[in-house]
Amino acid sequence: MDIYRPASWSEALEVKRGAPESVPLAGGTDLMVDLNFGRARPQALLDLTRLAELAGWDRDNGRVRIGAGVTFTTLIAELAPELPGLAIASRTVGSPQIRNRATLGGNLGTASPAGDALPPLLAAGAEVEVASAARSRRIPLEDFFIAPKVTALEGGELIAAIVVPVADGPQQYSKIGTRNAMVIATVSFALALHPGRRRVGTGIGSAAPRPLRATEAEDFIGGVLAEHDLWSSGAPIPEPASARFGELVAAAAQPIDDVRGTVAYRRHALAVLARRTLAWAWSDYRSAA
Amino acid sequence: MSLEVNGVEHSAEVEPRQLLVYFLRENLALTGTNVGCDTTSCGACTVLMDGRSVKSCTVLTVQADGAEVQTIEGLADDGKMHPLQDAFHTEHGLQCGYCTPGMIMAALGLIQEGGDLTEKDIRLGLEGNLCRCTGYHNIVKAIQSAADEMRSPASA
Asked: How far apart are CA A105 and CA A150, in angstroms?
């Protein structure tokens, strides 16, 4: 096995062009476990941890551009005001040692349906900035995930950054697992209220071949909030409406039976998480109004 | 590549796939850092890298190029135990001792982050470290006691 250790982003892209089979390595919290278990035997690794270009974030024009190498520890410490849903989800990742190493770009590149950062980024309407030696492009996050561990990255491309609109309302994330720490989600759900656009964003994790939005549920609850002018009145959401929202979220999922949970459990739990996160976020919205 | 371990500079040629924990144990004979699971689950191999706790079974040695690494061997000062080591001793924070180096290094990372440390903060901060003997009770007590001592002006 070879390891490339580029010192700059442009050098990394050149390496990836010359050796498209090389596997990007950041915090290593996913990839190294596969290597240690002998499940992955890459010919070459491309170590991105030295690249200063990937390590920072900045805010511009209502959006936060987060370098792919930003760790979960940094997201929690620095970005909770701008991206509260992502910060909540980041706190549930692994343990301090994992959050010190694991990066946002790595969570996207691994493309596990259970990746904790992915539902809140979907709910917030994030885009992925990818680059090759030849060009750079942005992909809406919901088009980035193709299948378990398969992304829209083409040969020679690397993830440069994630661009996320700054939260314009309360955001929530909830996750079910077998214990509080070091756990892969059995099912997870993120919700973002967008009062400015009168919309509700959603993200489902660990209940389909890829993380996905529950668009029908988003349209439904957005319609309820508009119809009764709840955005202005701040009145409680009628119970039947939040129950229906939960059902629609559960219906959007395509779960499987596996070691972490059954189809029936996942659908049930998703409906509960959807109702809960909606109630929490709406309560935040009302108390802020 | 070269790195600093417990304040001593080391340069070495290493295999690309060598894990940091094996560099510490086999190249430097620092066997205080234990290997528990190889899967980032148990935390026995926790060391500090540039001041932050990491699991050295999932860091490649080459990724530590240029880093400052601190292991359990780097804590005692000229034969005098570090407050965390003392506290694990006096509070009986260990039984078999296998998890202890990782526990102490994770605790050191937690204490160095600053801020108040309640019992809940300590339990949350140790969520990446498994102990199969103690039930954690005395480990938490030991860390609380060491944190108090390390932060009191008298110990400065």
From this structure: 14
Interface residues of A toward B, Cβ cutoff 8 Å, are: 1-3, 5, 25, 28-29, 32-33, 35-37, 45, 47, 49-50, 73, 94-98, 100-101, 180-182
Contacts of A43 in chain B (CB under 8 A): none
In this predicted structure, the answer to whether residue A88 has a pLDDT above a threshold of 90 is: yes
**Residue B152 pLDDT grade (very low, low, confident, very high; cuts 50, 70, 90):** confident
| CATH number, domain containing residue B100 | 1.10.150.120
Residue A16's contacts (CB-CB under 8 Å, 6 or more residues apart) are A22, A24, A46, A132, A133, A156, A157, A158
Please tell me the distance in Å from B81's CA to the nearest CA on chain A. Answer: 24
What's the whole-model pTM score?
A: 0.95
State residue B35 phi and psi, 5-degree precision. -105, 125
Question: Is B84 within 8 Å of B142 (Cβ atoms)?
Answer: yes
* Mean of pLDDT over chain B: 95
Same domain, residue pair B56 and B108: no
CATH of A171-288, picked from 3.40.50.2300, 3.20.20.450, 3.50.90.10, 3.30.390.50, is: 3.30.390.50
In this complex, do B58 and A181 lie within 8 Å of one another by their Cβ atoms?
no
Per-residue pLDDT tens digits for B92-134? 999 999 999 999 999 999 999 988 899 999 999 999 999 999 9
Place B154 in a pLDDT band, splitting at 50, 70 and 90. Answer: low
Average pLDDT over residues A49-57: 96
Is A98 in Cβ contact with B39 (below 8 Å)? no
Same domain? For B47 and B109 the reply is no
Phi-psi region of A251 (alpha: psi -120 to 50; beta: other; left: phi over 0): alpha
> Taking CB atoms and an 8 Å limit, are B40 and A47 in contact across chains?
no
